[in-house]
Structure formats: structure tokens, C-alpha cells
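Predict fold of MFS transporter; 162 aa.
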Amino acid sequence: MTEVAYTLRKNHAFYWLMGGNLVSFAGAQVYLIALPLVVLALTGSTIAMGTVAALGHATVWLQPLLGPVVDRYSRKTLLLLCDFVRAFVLLVLSGLYLVDELHIIYLFIAALIIGTCTQLYNTAQFAVIPSIVKKDDLQLANTIESSMFHTLFWSGQHLADF
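Predicted 3D structure, encoded as C-alpha cells:
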């Protein structure tokens, strides 16, 4: 085993981050498929379905504005806050659905909030890795993170089909 792999394996902060990312990435991928399908079931409109999906993805344009936010605040706090906000929004949507008060406008707003939190989360988690691993471990750490992200991107969408 190489020295880099050994030292990274001993880095508990990195593996806590990767464990949190595993759950967060998987949930985000299921959400990206599920929300447009909920809109389709609620409205029967493919235009509304496409609109809510586009709103969630349009937040990628916020990325250049989010870098300074991530640099200014605690990245750990931002990661936790973003996951909390996304979970809370989904919980509210679930509650509205249960009481039969879920309207399309709520789904549009939720897509914007969750999309923004996802962009902020992604920016913060990419920025936090260099601060928790040694410089020699950075390439392997980024490889692990990227592999996990892309694997969950692919598998999460297939899980959402069930």
C-alpha cells in the first residue's frame, strides 16, 4: 500500500465528509427525478414538469456568486445547513401532500430553494477537501470524491425509477 493511501485511510474527517456526501448525493439524485414526476402526477402537464426541472437546474448559474459565500463562512456549517434546508423543504412538501394542499407554485419554489442549496453544498464540499487532507493525499481524495459523485449520479437516477 502506498504511503498516500495509508495516510488518507487514517483521515477520519475525510471519511465523515464522504459518508455525508454519500447520503446527500444519493438523495439529491433521487429528488432530481422524483420532483418532476410529482409535478407530472399533480398537473398532468409535461410543460410544468419540464419547468420545475429547469428551475432546479438553472441554479447552476449561481455558482460564480456562491464561491465568495463559501470563502466567507464555515464550510462545515454551510454543508450541514444546506442539507438541513433541503430536508426541511422536502418535509414541508410531504406534509402539504398529505393534507392535499400541494400546489404547483410550492413545487416551483421548492425547486429553486433546493437547487440553490445544492449548488452551495457542492461548492462548499469541493472547497473543504483541501483543508482536511494533506497535499500529498489531495489527488486520491478528489478521485474518491469524484468517483462517488458520478457513481451516485448514475445509480441515483436508476433508483428513482423504482
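The domain at 13-160 is CATH 1.20.1250 (Growth Hormone; Chain: A;).
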